[in-house]
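Pilot study result, target chain (95 residues):
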Amino acid sequence: MLTYNTTSNITTMSRIDKSVYRVLRKLGVQRSEITPETSFKRDLFFDDRDWQCFLFLVESNMDVNLNDAMVMQVNTVGDAVTMLKQQVHNRYQFN
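Predicted structure:
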């Protein structure tokens, strides 16, 4: 399972890690292939269709809307978790 060192809300991070893990498993990725360093293109051989399925499932499961600029910067599973962490933090941040 994914592990991250963070000073943020552990409950939220666990939920994000689990959501990304579950989505990848639904897409047929083996457990042993899921690490923060795993590259979507190089290691998982994601094509555009796989990527769109991943984004759709993540957005649906986490109730977030991801913009194209953010998504273009994601290369690894860890990048995806970081992006989702930022989205969840921004959504629940009260100014």
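One observation from the pilot: Residues 85 and 93 are 12 Å apart (CA to CA). A full batch analysis is planned for the follow-on phase.
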